[in-house]
Design a protein that fits this description.
CATH topology: Rossmann fold
CATH architecture: 3-Layer(aba) Sandwich
Mean pLDDT: 82
CATH class: Alpha Beta
Helix content: 25-40%
Shape: globular
Largest sheet: 6 strands, mixed
Length: 154
């Protein structure tokens, strides 16, 4: 089993927590709103053991990353944040895995930066319908999102 390392990097003036494990082809894993990289822990180990370098960030405002009270909370900004994060980590080409709103962010990233995306997998992806549900809109509001979600491991 590969040893996952929890790290912090500064992007857009925010401290962003991410986990990195393994060596080989890079896989970037993105979660949805009000979630934490801890949700990927079984997947991270399995992919690292299968000779992949896995990077799973807590996007701004989620998990243990700083809350960006001065920044926009929208999918386009999140996709550009992922671009700047990958540049900071010196990752040029990778596969994307996106779950929930992370699927929407992955899709937007792939549209803007197709040369960087090797493969993409969307798992229970959100955001491709005509309307954003009231629940997704509600947890994207920083005060409510902080109240509703606290990262934990059971």
């Amino acid at each position: 089993m590969q040893q996952a390392e929890y790290k912090t990097v500064s992007v857009w003036g925010l401290n962003v927590r991410y986990v990195e494990a393994g060596n080989g082809l890079v896989v970037v894993m993105l979660l949805g709103l009000a979630d934490s990289l801890l949700s990927w822990y079984c997947n991270i180990d399995a992919l690292a053991d299968a000779r992949h370098r896995v990077i799973a960030p807590d996007l701004p405002g989620s998990g243990d990353s700083e809350k960006p009270y001065h920044l926009e909370h929208d999918p386009d900004s999140a996709a550009e944040f992922v671009y700047d994060l990958t540049q900071e980590l010196h990752v040029e080409r990778f596969s994307l895995v996106g779950s929930s709103a992370g699927g929407l962010i992955s899709g937007l990233f792939a549209l803007e930066h197709p040369e960087m995306v090797e493969k993409m997998a969307l798992v229970g992806s959100g955001g491709f319908g005509r309307r954003v549900s009231w629940l997704l809109r509600a947890v994207s509001v920083s005060v409510l999102g902080d109240t509703v979600y606290q990262p934990r491991v059971n």
